[in-house]
């Protein structure tokens, strides 16, 4: 099985990658289209030069890697929909089990704004995620549910994709992983300190007016996907 886990930023996606990486039957790929996205757009992100040096820049080569044989029975790929630019290959995704991880935009924006000053709807990826779901289909899960009850939520996810649940998914050792992208040094600090999923989410954050406008723009995309999420 090849799982393509699609998620916007600041959305429990690294913890989910570590959860599947804690299983003995999975290999991991961490955002393999990130470097091609940076190379194609010229976007200035933290550690841009290091990312381009360390990772494959050609989207066609990355697509081939996504389907390449691995030493484990299964492969888990962490992907971001906004990395998939027009012209990037998508045929490989039709050979995967596609899962779409969503989170309420107010929570995403509050988390992302702590790391990045100027956010746009395209940067947080909600339109791209809905469009990608409409293109490849798949299962929808919400990070709120996972944090509220990891075992129940992951058991339901595994059942939905016909994969036996493994209790190893609930915990992992603290620290970095050999599968981490080089950007982990900037973005993964909290999950490197973790040994499992954080507890339930708190109250919805209060956003500054300009960020609330962004949240209002993103909310309809989130709501369309949330209406399709896996029932527990």
UniProtKB/TrEMBL annotation:
GO terms for molecular function: transaminase activity. GO terms for biological process: branched-chain amino acid biosynthetic process. InterPro entries: Class-IV_PLP-Dep_Aminotrnsfr (IPR050571), P-loop_NTPase (IPR027417). Keywords: Amino-acid biosynthesis, Branched-chain amino acid biosynthesis. Belongs to the class-IV pyridoxal-phosphate-dependent aminotransferase family. This is Branched-chain-amino-acid aminotransferase-like protein.
């Amino acid at each position: 099985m090849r799982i393509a886990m699609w998620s916007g930023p600041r959305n429990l996606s690294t913890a989910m990658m570590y959860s599947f990486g804690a299983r003995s039957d999975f290999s991991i790929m961490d955002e393999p289209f990130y470097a091609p996205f940076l190379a194609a757009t010229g976007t200035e992100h933290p550690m841009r030069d290091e990312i381009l040096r360390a990772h494959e820049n050609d989207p066609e080569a990355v697509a081939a890697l996504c389907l390449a044989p691995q030493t484990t029975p299964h492969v888990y790929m962490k992907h971001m929909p906004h990395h998939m630019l027009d012209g990037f290959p998508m045929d490989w995704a039709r050979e995967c089990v596609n899962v779409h991880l969503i989170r309420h935009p107010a929570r995403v924006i509050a988390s992302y704004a702590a790391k990045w000053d100027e956010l746009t709807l395209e940067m947080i990826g909600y339109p791209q995620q809905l469009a990608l779901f409409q293109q490849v289909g798949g299962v929808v899960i919400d990070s709120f549910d996972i944090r509220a009850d990891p075992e129940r939520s992951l058991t339901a996810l595994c059942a939905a994709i016909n994969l036996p649940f493994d209790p190893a998914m609930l915990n992992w050792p603290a620290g970095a992983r050999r599968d981490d992208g080089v950007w982990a040094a900037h973005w993964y600090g909290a999950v490197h300190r973790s040994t499992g999923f954080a507890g339930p989410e708190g109250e919805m954050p209060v956003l500054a007016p300009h960020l609330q406008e962004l949240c209002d723009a993103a909310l309809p995309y989130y709501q369309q996907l949330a209406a399709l999420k896996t029932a527990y």
